[in-house]
Amino acid sequence: MKKVLIGFVVLLLIITASYMLLKKDSNKSASVNTEKIENTLVKSMEESKTEKKKLEQFLTKSSQVLNDNGYQIGLGFSHEERNLTVQVQDKAFLEANKMNIEKIIHNTAKKIGFQDFKVDFLTFDSYPTLSEEDEKLRKSMMKVFEEISALLKEKGYHSNSISTNPINEIIIEIQGTKEDLEKSKEIEELEKIIDQTIHSKTDLDFTVKIRKKSESAIRDQEWQPIFDAIREETNKKFNEYRGFAYSFHPEPLQIIIKTNINSAKWFGNSDKKINQITEYVDKIIELKREEFLIEEIPYEIIIRDKNNKEVN
Questions:
Q1: pLDDT tens-digit profile of 206-227?
Q2: 297 φ/ψ angles, rounded to the nearest 5 degrees
Q3: Domain with 177 in it
Q4: In terms of DSSP H, where are the helices of 155-269?
Q5: Could you report how far apart the first and last alpha carbons of the chain are, in Å?
Q6: Which of 45, 71, 114, 278 could form a disulfide with 58 if both were Cys (CB 3.0 to 4.6 A apart)?
């Protein structure tokens, strides 16, 4: 009986030691994997910054060269699709100048080293034509917004948004506490100055209201660099990525990654890929929060399959 008991104790010690070794190896493996993800991401995000600089140079230089050659056009770029959209005045102009415009764009891209993009054209005559009265109003509002932005800048305020509502109010959102804005004589004076400016330079009849930017809007703005990084880095890393969305309501923050993963049970690799994407997005958030000193808030990462079904 004593021998049996000793044998049992020895066996128990062996099992315990084996478990501890396995646990240690598992923790070490997880640590190595986390470090590998971080190193990969740091390198990728530096490459993304370099690519953004090239894109800015490419768009600026292309606009300049096109303008110098007499082409008054607009340029827009989609990061996820890597599409350059060229906006021209009408179809007749496009047919007469398309080849020359494309040549200028591709030559500029080659000089700067910007690669792997497609060029699409969009004509302004594909938009609904505004009536003369609506076009006049649009131009007047553009002028008003420019005047307001200039005045706010002159007074040391940064406008987060300028909008209108159906009751002829111009709503200007700026940062600051609600109490400060309501009690501030400077804000009241600023509203009067903007009112006078609008009435003196246009025939529009608007009332100006300055208010505090909402907490949700501030939080949304703070997280935009993180959201941009999630889009860019997840798209670069995973072929399964097909889109991104987020929502602060309801809490916690929902970060939604849309994929083309088939989550059917017989596709055994799907769970592994879902975990990889989740870990990658987690690390992006961690690194970008540290970079931009953004306060930590609760969030959840939701992975959707090709049928938009939540799979994690």
A1: 888 888 777 788 889 899 999 9
A2: -130, 155
A3: 132-213
A4: 178-183, 185-201, 215-237
A5: 51
A6: 114
